[in-house]
Amino acid sequence: MELLRPKRRYLEVFIISLIIALSFLLPYILIDKGIFVFYGDYNVQQVPFYMLVHNAIRSGNTAWSWTTDLGANFIGSYAFYNLGSPFFWLTMPLPDWMVPYTLGPLLALKMAVASVGAYAFIGRFVKRDEFAAIGGLLYAFSGFSIYNIFFNHFHEPMAFFPFLLIGLEEFMKNNRKGLFALAVFVNAIINYEFFIGTVFFLVLYFILRAASGDWKLGIKKFFLLLFESVVGVGLACVLFIPAILAVMGNYRVHQPLQGWNLLLYDNNQRYGDILHSLFFPQDLPARPNFFPDANNKWSSMSAFLPFFSCSGALAFIIARKGHWLRRILCISLLIALIPGLNSMFILFNSDYYARWFFMPTLMLSLATCIALDDPDIDYAAGLKWTFAITLIFALAIGLIPQVSGGKITQIGLEAYPDRFWVYVAIALGGLVLLAVILRRNGKSSPRFLYRVTILLTLTICIYANFFVATGKENGEDGTWYKSVAVEGAQKLTLNRTPFSRIDVYNGMDNLGMFWNWPTIQAFQSVVPTSIMNFYQSVGVQRDVASRPQLQYIGLRALLSVKYLVQQNATDTFTSPGWVFDSYQNGMKVWRNTNFIPMGFTYTSYITQSQYKVSENKDLLLLKGILLNDTQIKKYSRLLTPLPLTDIYNTSDNQLAADSAARRMYTCSTFSTDNKGFSAAITLPQDNLVFFSVPYDSGWSATVNGTPATIEQVNVGFMAVKCTAGSNSIRFNYKTPGLAAGQTVTGIFAVILVAYLLFVRFGLPRCKERFPQFNHIGKARPLQNKETKEKTP
């Protein structure tokens, strides 16, 4: 038997893509002595999240995270970021200190995997393998990919999306069973939010591909496909179920678009920004340039293909009327322009995001490669249209004057003229060079392929280097970042006993997380609903981060904040109750004289109505424990109503007195572990013991070995009743949905194995399992395994 398969260059594509990625990552890794330091969310979320999750898994603290905000469901908070990523799990054999050094190389690895996946997918639709390789580079280093260096974990869904389409194509074209189920599993477990958006696009792809006549689809085959889809999701339930349960109470999930907002964006610049994102590299996140007021700062809106832009896609659209790929591209643009349709990919949320743009980016890459590969497609037609549209954008935005007070203040509507013209040069320069090569050589010439590949690579390197350099210019200094954030925990000599939280004044986000110290300053959007409810109740805005301003001085005592770190030692800092402690690693440290250890008692209670009308809720919560009506009836023998005269006394001296009163009976010990926490307290009489640990349905408690009822008090925290005398308190946490998810995953793993065994041994072989390439739009196999007998 002889194995026949088309020559594929997976390893070559992988290595080339890896080298290209390192060309714009490695220089900055070397500059910052081994760590890739960028800007914004990458610096303050991606790096500390990797550090936190890595440390938690290696130490077994996978139930409750004490260093995520005020405390959080570990799986619920990090399933969106790290836990499903196969790239993250590559760091597990490494010690904690090495983890920050891995993010740059892992990012290059993600891009290389994305390139191989796109190459394998596009290779099914083109005759020349070299064009498929170009398609892999276009996808892996597209505007979406480079933009989302900022959001490092967005590269996982992008890297594995092509394999999902390959699994579908293999099932439909070549009758290959099991591959689609595994692809669904990988995409679902990597990131549940992106997977939900992927499902919508996959349905669109399936409908249009099936309608094209390329697939033979019967009832049996359809239900087998549906079965594999369910199996794939079932396999991912070990993370999928806990993650979904954790975010169900998040207010961001329950803000749907309504009325005209379903049909039209309320910002007219957004339409221009959507179109511009197809023809130009996208602006730096949080630094919008082409359309400064489009309010798309962190939307991941980019589908730009380096060097080629939309020239190949437009050439294909012009030449292939009625083609399924043309329909996908046109419908994708329509979806992007209609808010209600765009919101499908984020569960109809009112916040604007374009995080699904990597899916049409793959389709744009495919259309470009087909236009290059098919001699019947007039590539010049698409090139002319693309050049014209790009030039119109450049001239309109770059030359229209800005007028203020009747005077011209600037020529051009852009926010950063230097960056604007660099991006214009990248976009137009690539098109001009492409036109010259196309005119001289023709797209079928080997010289054309060679020169295009070289220029594409150079364009990627120039664009990506400029983007990264611009980001670093707006980010933290690498030396400072490494010394203070990454290595800061070893340089702080503060006393961490008893359990306490830390505050940071005018500092970088998530410094407490870097230092593995519980903190009230946290930039993490997936936290328990109880935290959000609490902060909003006291007047602190809680959207994607907890950043209680210094004016809420009572919160620092209530939440057991012992130290405040002043990042810039020259800043002026004054606040009641804080005294200078020391200089640590170039920063000033202040100690809270109103610090209350974790686990304390009250003598009075306050009602919901009293709390609602109070203008100083943070101070009021130091005077009395907030109970609902049912709890007041239940515990009226233990606590007295707070006197009205005390409610309105909010002086600094009273803050100190209230804090001292709360310290009178506190837990003598409080220790955390990988299952919850233990505490001990001695009381003169029965009372509620309050813990500023966020309430969550996964908690259970015992007092002196007897199960105890956990009361949700002070809006979002917990308390248990203890008796007079010595009390041993134990709180245990079990991740909601984890046991169910493990069971479901186990069941579907058995089902998948049984299914594959049945397919392998119980089904007759398909007579034509691997049909050969026919015409543009007909898939050829991932690997041609058709065999023939050798002549003896």
UniProtKB/TrEMBL annotation:
Signal peptide: none annotated. InterPro entries: Uncharacterised_YfhO (IPR018580). Keywords: Membrane, Transmembrane, Transmembrane helix. It comes from the Bacteria. The keyword Ribosomal protein does not apply. The chain crosses the membrane at residues 12-31, 98-122, 131-150, 179-210, 222-248, 298-319, 328-347, 353-372, 379-400, 420-437, 449-468, 738-759. This is Bacterial membrane protein YfhO. It comes from Ethanoligenens harbinense (strain DSM 18485 / JCM 12961 / CGMCC 1.5033 / YUAN-3). The lineage of its organism: Bacteria, Bacillati, Bacillota, Clostridia, Eubacteriales.
